[in-house]
Design a protein that fits this description.
- One of its GO terms (molecular function) is DNA binding.
- With 210 residues, the chain is mainly alpha-helical.
- 78% of the residues lie in helices and 0% in strands.
- The protein is built from 10 helices and no strands.
- Helix 4 runs antiparallel to helix 5.
- The relative contact order is 0.09.
Length: 210
């Protein structure tokens, strides 16, 4: 049987890709365990890939973390781009907004927190964080478009900004870590809070402030 010279190369490439995936999975797991940022020796131990191999696969820790955020977008991007039926009842739209955010923050809140931390001194990460915030704000705008269309531009922007801040990853972490709220409790609280804010803005709109 003739020897296929591509087979060893393909095998090495497949092993390399498996090792890279194991390293990225280890980064996710360590961050979720609260090891922020994870050290390379911790990543090596969790992934089963040696430190020397990690540095051959990635151009330093920043490159490895950047690759982790590329994988983050692949895994969780659908939760940052939620569509809303603007003809649906407002309660249904609010429920969809709250559930999608809690799904995202419960699954990837620790990674998002690391991104915010690294964004202070790493411009590419700052761009990623800014894009995430923009997508979350656009979610809120689409969710409440029917309600904000009846408000003045200033009051519409105020309502969107407040709802977006109240259901932000930072707010989720404060409720979860500082106040010991469960996922179910946060979901119920956010749903009531957003519903109350929308009702208050709709009932109390008096036009643009002078």
């Amino acid at each position: 049987m003739p020897h296929d010279p591509a087979t060893p190369v393909d095998g090495r490439r497949a092993r390399r890709e498996r090792s890279r995936a194991a390293v990225i999975d280890a980064v996710f797991a360590l961050i979720d365990d609260g090891k922020v940022p994870p050290a390379v020796d911790q990543i090596a131990e969790r992934s089963g890939v040696s430190v020397s191999s990690i540095f051959r696969m990635f151009d330093g820790l920043d490159d490895m973390r950047s690759q982790a955020f590329v994988e983050f977008e692949a895994r969780y991007g659908h939760l940052l781009a939620v569509d809303f039926d603007e003809a649906a009842a407002v309660d249904d739209r609010i429920d969809r907004l709250v559930r999608s955010r809690i799904d995202l923050f419960a699954a990837a809140g620790s990674l998002m927190a690391l991104a915010r931390q690294r964004s202070l001194d790493h411009e590419p990460m700052a761009d990623r964080v800014s894009n995430q915030r923009m997508l979350l704000a656009e979610q809120t705008q689409q969710c409440l478009r029917a309600e904000t269309s009846r408000l003045t531009p200033t009051e519409a922007a105020n309502l969107v900004a407040l709802v977006d801040a109240a259901t932000s990853p930072e707010a989720f972490e404060v409720l979860r870590a500082s106040h010991g709220r469960t996922r179910r409790q946060i979901e119920r609280t956010w749903r009531r809070a957003v519903t109350a804010l929308v009702a208050a803005w709709s009932d109390g709109n008096q036009g643009d402030p002078a």
